[in-house]
Amino acid sequence: MEKTISIWEGTAKQGGTFSSLTGHKEADVVIIGGGITGLTSAMLLSEAGKKVIVLEALQIGLGTTGNSTGNLYITVDEYLSVIKNKWGPEVMKAVAHSRKEAINLIEANITKYNLDCDFYRTSFNLFAEDLDKDIEEFIEEELQALTEAGAAVSIGGNPGLPFEVAKSLTVEGQAQFHPLKYVRGLAEIVKDTCEIHENSQVIDFDEDEGIVKTKDGSVKAAHVIMATHTPKGVYGVHTVLGPYREYGVAAELLSGEMPRGIFWSLNQPKRSVRCFKDGDKDYVLVIGDKYKTGHGDDTSEYIQRLESYLTSHFNIGPVTHVWAGQQYRPADNLPYIGKHGDFMYFLTGFASDGLVYGTLASMIVSDMIIGKANKWQDIYKLSRFTPVKSFTEFFKENADNLVQYLKGAPSDAEADSMEEVPPGEGKVIEKEGEKLAVYKDENGVNHVCSAVCTHLKCTVNWNPSEKSWDCPCHGSRFKTNGQVIEGPAVADLPVITT
Ligand SMILES: Cc1cc2nc3c(=O)[nH]c(=O)nc-3n(C[C@H](O)[C@H](O)[C@H](O)COP(=O)(O)OP(=O)(O)OC[C@H]3O[C@@H](n4cnc5c(N)ncnc54)[C@H](O)[C@@H]3O)c2cc1C
Ligand code: FES
User: Fold this and answer.
1) Is the beta carbon of 456 within 6 A of some atom in ligand 2?
2) Is the pLDDT of residue 397 over 80?
3) What's the pLDDT score for residue 408?
């Protein structure tokens, strides 16, 4: 069983073909991060004649892009009717239209460069197995919003799913693809005109000079694109982004049909279901059960619930892939895209809609760098701060952060000594006034780091299903050896010798 890797990683060719950065270089644009946002920006800017260098900490596409669902749709996971109620009909329509342009760009790239990434146009479907008054009203509101946005939308019964469905809403002309094959395909195309480096984690930036540094090299550029999903470092924007993790589970379909299409359940908990064909194997995927990063006590329960969902709805074989990804949810429901300071660009807050929003953000920022007007840039501008529209979410995220800081105060340790940590588990202990993150491996060897997050000093929590230390404040995550995996933290958790 290929567990703990996404179906996309499990069905794409091996990556990791680009060398790491060494020495000092100069470029027009340096892009930090090689997901869909970084690679799309690289492609657009290279096409415009800019000298571009991409620096990726791990491998191209193995951040959230390669752990997503591969759905491309004009609506958003908080729904267009919610955007309409919060921002008004004009912004709602602009969101749908701008996202449509981004999907069209993805399709145009695939056609132009002949990228083999399982792309096809298909429908987006909301479905309810059980109907109640709230769901009925919601479907009507969403129908209205989508109609105003010019979408080809209809209401119906079962959209072809192999289980009972009471009502559905269908939007035609959306799309699905293999997200990892797509970004790796883009990398293969742009590598002829720009430099790409993997295993090149940016560990320092000189914001005054526009210089980014890795362990063995540095790049000076007039423009620095932070395509790291959430900006690395300490910035105000982190107070309006809620980090959440979400799981995916896939299994082979043994009998029955799972039609092509994007399917989101309207009954709670919300789930996203789709099929994927790899050679002669038909897979069914379910994604859902999101929880705030660093807050899920027994994260294996989330995976079990998704497995049970698949077993109760489909005739499947054993689970073949299990994975997780992170999303950053903006407090006022729109991404943050734009220039920060003299050199830097932030592209963040995509929630779980960032294959499309990441593409759109790349279009907006590339136009800013090239000096071309972009009609969508004001809607998503970074400088907006909307206390009225985002107050509830802003308060919720930050009240929670305050709780986490207080939790980090001495005396909130989970075990009194390292001996109490069972093999295969991690616990925070307190020793001589210091919080320690202790992971005991299966052989009984302790791996000890500081439990104080290097971003803004919250105490990290153990994530048992992914064996990582996750920060409940802004979503930084660390390996058991302290190495940063993702989130705004730049520095690793210091290793403690005991
Ligand atoms: C479970 C799940 C399902 C989803 N499904 C969908 C979907 O169906 N449709 C959709 O539109 N969106 C979906 N999303 C959201 C979407 O996947 C993301 O928003 C999108 O992939 C973000 O792309 P990105 O390039 O900005 O970030 P990433 O893909 O995370 O790329 C950022 C890259 O930056 C690198 N990096 C980080 N720090 C450094 C550093 N210091 N130096 C160098 N490199 C660094 C990382 O290694 C990473 O590769 C989903 C999200 C989740 C969690
Ligand atoms: S991610 Fe901000 S304090 Fe840990």
Assistant:
1) yes
2) no
3) 52
